[in-house]
Amino acid sequence: MEPLFESFFQAGFECSTHRRKDGRRLDLIASTGHDRFARQDYTAVAGLGLRTVRDGIRWHLVEASAGRYDWSSFLPMLRAARSAGVQPVWDLCHYGWPDHIDIWRPAFVDRFAAFAAAVATVVRNELPGVPFYCPINEISFWAWAGGDVAYFNPGTERRGLALKQQLVRAALAAIEAIRRVDARARIVHADPAIHVMAGSPRMRRRAANADAAQYQAWDMISGKLMPGLGGKPEYLDIVGVNYYPDNQWIYDGPKVRRGHARYRPLREMLLQVHARYGRPMFVAETGAEGDERADWFAYVCDEVAAAMAQGVPLHGVCLYPILDYPGWENERHCPAGLLGAADRVGRRPVQAELAAELARRLGYRNGRVPIPAVG
Questions:
Q1: For position 179, what pLDDT does the model report?
Q2: What residues contact residue 253 under an 8 Å CB cut-off, 6+ apart?
Q3: Residue 102 and residue 152: Cα distance in Å, rounded?
């Protein structure tokens, strides 16, 4: 299997820019200090063997005025990536958009496509090699969080399907715009893999519907569902599966954690996604907090190895977020990263246990031996 990315193990920088339900806009690139220390951050992760990175472009800063693009928030990061020799996968819209655009209007689609084309032009002119883009991050999660339960923008309830359709329209328009600028571009579509179980027989249908909703955005993009949106198989290029310790739960009930009798192994979920789409895949986000970090990463690597052994074309595992960060709701310190908070010159402490597990896995891959099972 020919590798898609420069490195199998990857670093993901938290780049959310949404507005919370209280109206405050978040900017995780700024609040983690990554905007100031991009060069140091890229150099640090490359030194740890993570030569492919997921990162974001802050649309609300680039297009603060309608139709006018200011690249001052992006060009330093782009050039830092080139200087450090890392391969970026750019999120074009990570939950946030400029305030002067109404996400529900048709103009949102057109404006996003224009922005995507402008980004592709800048990247083509600045960075060698095949560019990678994720047009809209986690369409399914965003549709639920912003459209169904008003957790963050656009802050509506019971409009999740409509928001999902609008985000798909925008993603499809962006793909076309990017490919017109640079036909080499590869496109990632990242969404969570989940497992929703019924707590009682009368909840089986609702649980099954909630579980099936995880595929709707990918189905729309590929044209399997609602083909009137314009989806086609060629638009579903690379499938990114996001997976965390709390991605399984009882419908209207508690989370189901690893070790529970009803917990579904990740390998089965990866096999199911592959059987449905037959596309190149990678684990686009995974991570845990605190002392669970190294053990969780080992578990995911073991499950990825098992899925690969059964023929799933998995091209990477992205540690996400790679930096500790302030929580969305209350700015609490979230110790989830391989790297911690930066000092005044951009040096960050390394989480020793996770770094050791990463080094072990890298050693096996560099020795051309499959990722081994723990034990």
A1: 98
A2: 199
A3: 15
Strands (E), the chain: 9-12, 52-56, 87-93, 132-136, 186-192, 195-197, 238-242, 248-250, 281-286, 314-319, 325-326, 333-334
Element (H, E) at 114: helix 106-126
CA 46 to chain centre: 19
Find the Cα–Cα–Cα–Cα dihedral 191, 14, 66, 231, rounded to 10°.
-10
* CB count in 10 Å sphere of residue 214: 23
**Average pLDDT for runs of 10 along the chain of length 375:** 96 98 97 98 97 98 97 98 98 98 98 98 96 98 98 98 98 98 98 98 97 98 98 98 98 97 98 98 98 98 98 98 97 97 97 97 62 35
Looking at residue 363, its pLDDT comes to: 85
∠ CA(336), CA(214), CA(155), 5° rounding?
75
Alpha-carbon span 210 to 175, nearest angstrom:
28
pLDDT at residue 1, rounded to an integer = 86
Could you tell me which of 36, 14, 41, 38 has the C-alpha nearest to residue 26?
14
CB-CB neighbours of 230 under 10 Å: 16
- The full DSSP string for 44-102 is HHHHTT--EEEEE--HHHHTSBTTB--GGGTHHHHHHHHHHT-EEEEEEESS---TTS-
Q: Specify the 3-state DSSP secondary structure of 226.
A: coil
